[in-house]
Amino acid sequence: MRIIEKLSNQITIWREISAQRRKLGELSDYHLKDIGLSRVDA
User: Per the domain annotation, does 42 fall within a domain?
Assistant: First the structure.
């Protein structure tokens, strides 16, 4: 059961990071620069 719980947690984290990256990808270069990121970082 512990392995399934760890896997579930990892999938949840991966989905959250994926959603964050999608949102960053929607920002313009200007807005990325404003928050200290570049297109490569996003």
Answer: no
What's the structural domain count of the chain?
A: 1
Q: Which stretches of the chain score pLDDT less than 70?
A: none
Spatial separation of the C-alpha atoms in residues 32 and 10, rounded to whole Å: 27
42 touches 27 (CB < 8 A): yes
Q: Domain containing 28: what range? A: 2-34
What is the pTM for the complete model shown? 0.72
Rounded Cα distance, 14 and 17, in Å: 5
Residue 41 contacts residue 32 (beta carbons within 8 Å): yes
